[in-house]
Structure to design on (506 residues):
């Protein structure tokens, strides 16, 4: 059983300070233990539990929306029979990773990072944390900062303003703050939203509610996939888990990339196939055109995945229904729609989205000068222009998150090896192409992306400044390409001076 550190550490000095004990931070630590066993590191986690998303969210049915052989780490095969896995299984997998790599003693829970400042003169980061629930603060120093904080605000989800909420006599809950004691058995439930959270909640609750309704303003593309991978199961039996892992992983990457590429190259055909897949699983009279045919092209927004068509089974059985309309206001007994229809409800779930937040809302600075992430440009989608000795991990939007995390962690270890070999103490990416156009870090049209992406670092349009959402391209530049690049400025400690960031801001 994982026994993470909960002591109120007041200081520590390490080579690498990892922020976040979710799938990215744990992955970074495991890579350091394996590839650089002499490197000292610590993991700071603001909450009182490891796991990030998978310990934070507790709503019914929480699960992966990517296949686990690729969402899991490349160095640790996924062994459970479920390919689309429940949240508690993913959390168990992360705890096993912590145990197997002996990471527990490096994790400091309840340490929310408030600010992090880099000193060019000292060549080190100083990080201030606040203990959860108190005003106590601690200070850590490190040569490198690795941000594994994800891209969502763990404090608050997104809920639009609904008129009349105060009039509703029932319970309103956001999935990010799901009450442990919420009893939905026999109740009339309305789930507002049509994204991954909503389509997970509906079939998970449908068997116990009196009736559950998905209320959406507009539909999303929904793809039914098997929860168990028959080919993967056969390969595991024939070859053993470790040998089969690479083949299954590659198979799944090729399939997912194939669907994505087909969506972009032939959107009309892909649209017809996706909608036909839905139509095949619903009763003949069901209005698929209204409720499951989006107005945008496939993969303009992330594809929603349902294992074994569970959402469609709940609808076909009459336990769940879908309404596509706009909300006029909440009433005492439910929701009045723009069409005049009223939906009665005992519980309303606002599955209306998440709030994007760069780098855990940490205040970053270099030599006393505040760093606004949106003013920086991402180098190889893992470092920030003008910010020394910092790496971050943000996963793919069109593929399993962890595939990118693994590549970033591998490249980070190679970068440290390169610096040690050549006697370098600091490295900073310098935007050496001032005329290059800068664009948003990701280009999905989802509302949550549009609301938050301008707070994130920008991407460039050429060279190492592009943000690749293509695994095969990242393999080439992060795993195979040399570490050294003309955009990187390496220095020894004696060369670093307090004014050195001016070069990085060009």
């Amino acid at each position: 059983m994982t026994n993470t550190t909960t002591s109120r550490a007041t200081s520590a000095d390490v080579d690498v300070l990892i922020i976040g004990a979710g799938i990215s931070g744990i992955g970074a630590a495991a890579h350091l233990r394996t590839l650089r066993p002499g490197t000292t590191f610590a993991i700071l986690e603001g909450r009182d539990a490891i796991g990030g998303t998978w310990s934070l969210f507790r709503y019914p049915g929480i699960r992966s929306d990517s296949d686990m052989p690729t969402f899991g780490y490349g160095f640790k095969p996924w062994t459970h029979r479920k390919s689309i896995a429940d949240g508690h299984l993913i959390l168990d997998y992360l705890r096993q990773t912590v145990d197997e790599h002996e990471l527990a003693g490096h994790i400091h829970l309840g340490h929310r990072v408030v600010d992090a400042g880099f000193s060019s003169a000292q060549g080190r980061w100083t990080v201030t944390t606040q203990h959860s629930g108190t005003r106590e603060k601690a200070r850590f120093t490190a040569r490198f900062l690795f941000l594994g904080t994800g891209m969502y605000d763990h404090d608050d989800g997104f809920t639009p303003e609904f008129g009349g909420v105060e009039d509703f006599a029932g319970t309103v809950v956001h999935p990010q703050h799901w009450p442990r004691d919420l009893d939905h058995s026999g109740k009339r439930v309305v789930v507002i939203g049509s994204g991954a959270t909503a389509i997970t909640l509906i079939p998970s609750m449908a068997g116990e509610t009196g009736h559950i309704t998905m209320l959406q303003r507009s539909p999303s593309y929904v793809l039914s996939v098997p929860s168990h991978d028959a080919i993967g199961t056969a390969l595991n039996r024939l070859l053993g888990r470790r040998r089969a892992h690479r083949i299954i992983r590659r198979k799944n990457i090729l399939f997912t990339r194939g669907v994505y590429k087909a969506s972009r190259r032939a959107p009309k055909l892909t649209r017809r196939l996706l909608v036909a897949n839905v139509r095949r699983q619903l009763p003949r009279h069901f209005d698929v055109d209204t409720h499951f045919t989006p107005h945008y092209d496939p993969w303009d927004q992330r594809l929603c995945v349902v294992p074994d068509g569970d959402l469609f089974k709940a609808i076909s059985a009459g336990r769940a229904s879908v309404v596509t309309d706009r909300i006029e206001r909440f009433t005492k007994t439910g929701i009045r729609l723009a069409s005049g229809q009223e939906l009665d409800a005992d519980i309303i779930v606002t599955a209306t989205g998440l709030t994007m937040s760069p780098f855990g809302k940490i205040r970053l600075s270099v030599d006393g000068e505040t760093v606004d992430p949106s003013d920086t440009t991402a180098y190889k989608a893992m470092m920030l222009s003008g910010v020394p000795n910092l790496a971050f991990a943000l996963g793919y939007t069109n593929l399993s998150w962890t595939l990118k995390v693994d590549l970033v962690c591998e490249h980070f270890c190679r970068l440290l090896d390169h610096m040690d070999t050549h006697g370098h103490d600091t490295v900073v990416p310098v935007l050496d192409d001032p005329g290059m156009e800068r664009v948003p870090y990701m280009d999905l049209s989802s509302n949550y992306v549009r609301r938050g992406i301008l707070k994130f670092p920008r991407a460039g349009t050429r060279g190492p400044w592009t943000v690749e959402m293509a695994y095969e391209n990242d393999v080439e530049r992060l795993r195979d390409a040399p570490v050294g690049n003309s955009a990187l400025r390496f220095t020894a400690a004696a060369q670093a001076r307090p004014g050195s960031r001016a070069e990085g801001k060009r």
Notes: The domain at 11-155+356-504 is CATH 3.50.50.60 (FAD/NAD(P)-binding domain). The chain has 14 helices and 23 strands. Residues 3-7, 496-506 have pLDDT under 50 and may be disordered.
